[in-house]
Every structure is written in structure tokens, then in C-alpha cells.
Amino acid sequence: MPKPTDLIIFDETGDVRDQFARLVAIMECLRDPQTGCPWDIEQDFDTIAPYTIEEAHEVADAIERRAWGELRGELGDLALQVVYHAQMAGEAGHFDILGVLKSINDKMVSRHPHVFGAESRDKSAEQQTEDWEKIKAAERAGKDERGVLDGVALGLPALTRALKLQRRAARVGFDWPSTAEVIDKIVEEAQELNEARTTLGPDEIAEEYGDLLFVMVNLGRHLGIDPEAALRATNGKFTRRFAHIESELRKLGKAPADSDLAEMDALWNDAKARGVK
Questions:
Q1: Euclidean distance between CA atoms 137 and 146, whole angstroms
Q2: In a domain, 155, yes or no
Q3: Domain containing 73 — which CATH number?
Q4: What is the 3-state secondary structure (H, E, C) of the chain?
Q5: pLDDT top residue among 171 and 133
Q6: CA–CA distances in Å: residue 73 to residues 66, 67, 70
Q7: Does residue 115 sit within a domain?
Q8: How far apart are CA 160 and CA 212, in angstroms?
Q9: Burial letters for 191-230: b for 16+ Cβ neighbours within 10 Å, e otherwise?
Q10: What is the number of structural domains in the chain?
Q11: Mutual angle of helices 202-222 and 158-171, in 10-degree steps
Q12: Residue 106 lies in a domain
């Protein structure tokens, strides 16, 4: 049986199993109470979880920018997070990396009976999605998750969690029949927010603002738009157009702090006219 330190020095030409074993061994060494890294030894699930979320977002960022060279490294960072949590779980006696891999392998096989079982592949992607949700519902029932909204992770980005909550509710008929009714609700919530600005306190204003955001997510769902992806795209557009403002101001020997809203707004419109998206 090779020692962890033997695995760590495997050549990069090793196969997938070698390299994955190498990563597991590296993490085991880093967490060794006697010889490991002091920082890594001090970490726990709570302190590592934010890094896990951050790494997932960095993967999404690399994909959006089509930065394929960066994506390889970002996926490696994300894989490290999985191994990190599995190592800590193993130390606590919960489970180990083998259990993690077996769990996902079994899940993927059971959720694809049209590939690994006797079911026919002759059905649309939409039908396969419906079947996937039925299998997931059966799995939740097996976990004694009785509520329709049980199991929607609290740690998801708020827009994504809102979308998942609404999809779950819609499956049992709790949904507006048409997009027009969602838009009417947006108008209603916007009016309530406007009234709250002058009649209610900060907590109530924040609540009304949240209600408006929630309905906006619902509109995206009715239009077939992922709100997280749409807002991410708009963030990118805003960044590029503001960069245009800064670039044009530099030509004038100025910075945004030296400008005013009228000038910057004119440069924003110039960016739009030039097709900056």
C-alpha cells in the first residue's frame, strides 16, 4: 500500500485514477495533525463552505468569458473543495471520498433509466426533464421530505433559490396561469414599494423590495429566462459600458470623479450607440 507522500510525487503523465488519488493524498497530508499545514488543519465545514461557493462562481465566470485555459484551473479548484469536505467528513466519521463518489455514481445511474436501464431513449428532452423530476420527487419521499418545498437548499443564491421554490410550487398548481397576471402583480408590488418608501420603516421597505424581486423571478420563469443568468449578463454589460465611459473620460484627461452625471450619461448613450453590450 503506497504512502500518501508516495502518491503525491506521481508524474503528471499518470492516468485519471492516479491523479485523483494524488489529490486525495495531498489533502490527507495537509490535514495531518502532526505534519500538515496549520491553516488547513484549523478549517472546518463552516469555514470552507464560502470557498466552495466562491470556486463554483469562478467556474461559471470562466465559462461565461469563454476562458477555457482558466476553466481547467477553476475546475481543479472546485474538485479540491469536494475532496476537502470529504476529508473532513472522514476525520469526523461521517463518510469518505469513496462514499461521495459511489453516491453520485449510483444517483446518475438511477436517474437515467433511459441510458442505463430498460427505458426507451425515444423521448424529448422536455419529457426526460419531467421524468428526472419524478425520480427526484421519489427520492425526496424516501428521505421523508414531505413538504413540496423541502430540500431546496438554503445556501443557493437568492435568485436561483426563488426560481427553484417557484418551480416546485408550480408543479402542484400554485402558479399564475399567464404571464400577463405576473406582470400585473409586478405593477402591484412596485406600487406597494413606492408607498412603503414614505409610510413605512426600513424593514418593511426591504420586505416590499424582496416581494418585487420575487415576482420578477417569477416573470423570468414564465418567459423561460434564468434570472441569475440574465442578471449576470446585465452586470457584464454594465461593466463594459462603464469601462467605455472611463476610457472616453481618460481621453479628456479626466476620471469619473471629475465628471458629472450629465456627461457620464451622454457617454453611456454613446456606448449604446456604438453597440457596446
A1: 10
A2: no
A3: 1.10.287.1080
A4: CCCHHHHHCCCCCCCHHHHHHHHHHHHHHHCCCCCCCHHHHHCCHHHHHHHHHHHHHHHHHHHHCCCHHHHHHHHHHHHHHHHHHHHHHHHHCCCCHHHHHHHHHHHHHHCCHHHHCCCCCCCCHHHHHHHHHHHHHHHHHHCCCCCCCCCCCCCCCHHHHHHHHHHHHHHCCCCCCCHHHHHHHHHHHHHHHHHHHHHCCHHHHHHHHHHHHHHHHHHHHHCCCCHHHHHHHHHHHHHHHHHHHHHHHHHCCCCHHHCCHHHHHHHHHHHHHCCCC
A5: 171
A6: 13, 10, 5
A7: no
A8: 15
A9: ebbeebeeeeeeeebeebeebbebbbbbbbbbeeeebbee
A10: 2
A11: 60
A12: yes
Domain final residue pick, 60, 85, 110: 110
Q: In whole angstroms, what is the distance from residue 207 CA to residue 136 CA?
A: 32
Rounded Cα distance between 203 and 201, Å, is: 6
Task: Decide: pTM greater than 0.70.
Answer: no
- Of 110, 142, 163, the residue at which a domain comes to its end is 110
Question: Is 156 inside a domain boundary?
Answer: no
Query: What range does the domain containing 252 cover?
Result: 229-273
Q: For residue range 163-214, what is the model confidence (pLDDT) as tens digits?
A: 999 998 998 899 999 999 999 999 999 999 999 999 999 999 999 999 999 9
